[in-house]
Every structure is written in structure tokens, then in C-alpha cells.
Amino acid sequence: MRNTPNDDADPTALRDRADALGAQIEAAQRQRRGADEQNASSGSSHRGAEMAWRIVIGMLVALLLCGAIGMWVDRTVGSAPIGIILGVLLGFGVGVRLAIREAIASAQAANAQSNDHPSS
């Protein structure tokens, strides 16, 4: 819109311009609120994926580390497959324990967050 000298003198033109500007501001605010709500809803799925990756990585590290220790015991002592089998089983147990602890911690955090912000 061009600002002409006649527009400044006409109160209805000023009112129309103010109304148009107000409508643009309201539309921008609605659009921003919608984007904020969409980001908030996608944040929960990211938290779930983050927890899943932590569990998978913890499980793999526990299996590989305990399996490597079992292999080292096998080579040192000479107890061929027993050490690696026990190491992998121990690693699986440690991985499951880590996964359970992670799930409990996540549930407690979600519960605390829902208690802080009760839904209306």
C-alpha cells in the first residue's frame, strides 16, 4: 500500500489500514501458535526415540563389553566357549537391567512433568 497525502487526511482510510494491519498481525500470531503447538507435539516423539536409542546403545555396549571380557577369560584360562557364553549372558542381563532403569526413569520424569502441568 502506498502512503499518499490524501490517505493521511482521510480517517476512514487510516482506520482501514489499521484494521488490515491488525488482521495481518493476528494471522501471523495464529500461524506462530500453530507452529509452536506442532513443535511441542513432535518433541514427545523425539524424546521417545532418544530413549529407545539410549536403550539400544546401552544394550549393545553391555553385550560387546561383557562378551569381550568372556573372550579374554577364555584365552587366558583356556576354557574355550564357557567364558564367552557367560560373558554374553551377563551382558544381556546388564543390558536388560539398564533398559529397565531407563524406562523407569523416563516414566518418573513423564509423571513429574504431568503433575507439574495438569491438563485442563
Could you explain how this protein is built, in words?
This protein has 120 residues and is mainly α. It has helices spanning 5-9, 11-77, 82-116. Helix 2 packs antiparallel against helix 3 (82-116). The two termini are 44 Å apart.
Keywords, separated by commas or semicolons:
single chain; 120 residues; mainly alpha
Strand count: 0
Fraction in beta strands: under 5%
Helix content: over 70%
State mean pLDDT (0 to 100 scale).
Answer: 83
Major β-sheet annotation: none
Q: Which structural class best describes the helix and strand composition?
A: mainly alpha
Oligomer: single chain
User: What series of H and E elements makes up the topology?
Assistant: HHH
Q: Globular, elongated, flat, extended or rod-shaped: what is the shape? A: rod-shaped
**What is the count of DSSP helices, taking H or I runs of 4+ residues?**
3
Low-pLDDT segments, ≥5 res: none
Distance between the termini: 44 Å
Number of domains: 1
The Cα radius of gyration reads 31 Å
Question: What's the layout of helices and strands?
Answer:
Layout: H1 5-9, H2 11-77, H3 82-116
Helix pairs in contact: 2-3
Brief digest:
With 120 residues, the protein is mainly α. It has helices at residues 5-9, 11-77, 82-116.
